[in-house]
Write a structure and sequence with these properties.
Elements: E1 10-11, E2 34-35, E3 41-45, E4 55-56, E5 63-64, E6 69-72, E7 81-82, E8 87-95, E9 104-111, H1 129-138, H2 151-155, E10 165-170, H3 179-186, H4 188-201, E11 206-212, H5 216-228, E12 238-243, H6 252-260, E13 275-279, H7 280-292, E14 298-304, E15 312-317, H8 322-329, E16 337-340, E17 347-348, E18 362-366, H9 384-388, H10 395-403, H11 407-412, H12 423-427, H13 434-447
Helix pairs in contact: 3-5, 4-7, 10-13
Bound molecules: iron/sulfur cluster (SF4) (2 copies).
One iron/sulfur cluster (SF4) binds next to helix 12 and helix 13.
């Protein structure tokens, strides 16, 4: 049954089949965030984004100010790295602090404890689309819903592409995480500055803020802001659209379909159907940079899981170690698994010595009771994985074809449409790690140069 929605909220225009209803565990909903004290050192990898890694532009023993660019790249698909504390560059060496498995240069800064802003920070003058895209690049903002794709590159669409709709992703369908919900309830002004500037400079007529129907308070706040601000006549083109709370409503292709009715074909991008999708916190950080000149330096992180004493949202300087964050929040017992991100799409961290990076929005410290490591058994052909796949795929058939190395069949079964949401894994009674098979199949198809 649908919840009663505030007047003015529009209903979704299309419905997906499939999806799942995990326990949402939004324990930190409505809790006031806690700011973590500045750490003694931060370790900043020169790549916290999809695309080309940056090159350090500082040297060991250089003094740096808060917000100073310390690594950059000339590549379009990249994002500058900023100092998230003021202090002295202590070391620059290769390593992996992100659990990605690939080593990049890590710039370690010893804090002077002053959090002294860099003198060169200033508010960007924006007079054109190009100025706006440059400002977004200078802000260091990447897809903050977890994707990490440089936002400036996403805004810089190829010639001949027209974007008519900005879809704001406020679904936050992953269990536990509440940082987008917090932003929609509490940081509404900078969020709208980011949103309206994106519409203005990219000449986008319409915005749709897509929210799950378990965030009624956020819908009310957004609507009342839209109604009361006469200065923003663009507001008449901003809709709040609600859809059922169900995982994975926030997946890009799914939110586009449910809010606009448009389908993004396999191998194509949202801009191919005239849509740009940006996450709530991505727009919020763009708004902050445009208003203050301060780039992305901190993340609000949901810290939760049964090993945590009190679940909370914590404002953390990027580059802080996971161990320090967990220490600050407090543990009731040693976690047996720590995940960066949500339980469905997050990544297990191999060591608490890893650091918080730009696209992190949650840290889950779990004990054995939160998850099962049951042994995989034979497929019993129950078809649950097919019934729950939001992309209408047949995960069981893809897995079986992959195991027999029948790659033509794997391609015919449209594996490249898989969004790696993990719904098939979640419902499989035989505990078959289906998403692992989907990833392997996609990698193999790419190696074969196929995109069927
Ligand atoms: S991981 Fe892929 S195959 Fe499995 S449910 Fe999600 S989209 Fe379907
Ligand atoms: S859910 Fe698991 S057991 Fe059921 S058909 Fe799919 S792979 Fe087989």
């Amino acid at each position: 049954m649908r919840v009663k929605l505030p007047d003015g909220v529009k209903d979704q225009v299309a419905h997906i089949k499939g999806g799942i209803h995990p326990d949402y565990n939004k324990n930190t909903h409505n809790s006031e965030p806690v700011t973590m004290p500045s750490p003694k050192t931060v370790r900043l990898p020169v790549s916290m984004h999809i695309g080309t890694a940056c090159e350090p532009i500082v040297k060991v023993r250089d003094k740096v100010g808060l917000g100073q660019v310390i690594a950059d790249s000339t590549s379009r698909i990249s994002s500058p790295i900023h100092a998230t504390v003021s202090g002295t560059v202590k070391s620059i060496r290769e390593g992996d602090v992100t659990s990605s498995g690939s080593k990049v240069q890590i710039i370690e800064i010893e804090s002077d404890g002053e959090m002294r802003p860099y003198e060169g920070l200033k508010v960007s003058e924006i007079r054109s689309k190009e100025d706006f895209i440059k400002a977004v690049r200078d802000s260091g903002v990447v897809g903050l819903g977890g994707a990490g794709f440089p936002t400036s590159a996403k805004l810089d669409t190829p010639p001949g592409i027209t974007i008519d709709t900005l879809v704001v992703n406020g679904a936050e369908c992953e269990p536990y995480i509440t940082v987008d919900d917090y932003a929609m309830n509490n940081d509404i002004e900078p969020f709208f500055i980011g949103l309206t500037n994106t519409m203005k400079w990219l000449n986008i007529d319409r915005a749709i803020i897509g929210i799950e129907d378990n965030k009624v308070e956020a819908m009310e706040n957004l609507l009342s802001y839209i109604k009361k601000d006469p200065a923003l006549d663009i507001n008449k083109n901003i809709d709040v659209v609600s859809f059922k709370a169900q995982y994975p409503q926030g997946a890009e292709k799914i939110i586009i379909y449910q809010t606009t009715g448009r389908k993004v074909p396999v191998g194509k991008l949202p801009h191919d159907v005239g849509v740009l999708v940006l996450n709530v916190n991505t727009l919020l950080e763009i708004g902050i940079f445009i208003s203050t000149g301060m780039p992305l330096l901190t993340r609000l992180i949901t810290v939760d899981g049964s090993a945590v004493r009190t679940p909370m949202n914590v404002l953390v300087p990027i580059g802080t170690s996971i161990a320090e964050v967990l220490d600050f929040v407090g543990l009731r017992e040693n976690p047996s698994l720590v995940i960066m991100g949500g339980p469905m799409m997050g990544v297990a961290v191999s060591s608490l010595d890893k650091t918080i990076i730009k696209q992190n929005n949650a840290l889950l410290a779990l004990t054995q009771k939160d998850y099962s490591l049951a042994d995989e058994s034979e497929c019993i052909r129950c078809a649950h994985c097919i019934d729950h796949c939001p992309m209408h795929l047949q995960p069981t058939s893809i897995m079986k074809a992959l195991k027999k190395d029948e790659m033509d069949k794997v391609m015919d079964l449209q594996v490249m449409a898989c969004i790696e949401c993990g719904c098939c894994d979640y419902v499989c009674p035989a505990k078959i790690p289906l998403v692992h098979y989907m990833r392997s199949a996609k990698t193999k198809v790419r190696e074969l140069g196929g995109h069927k």
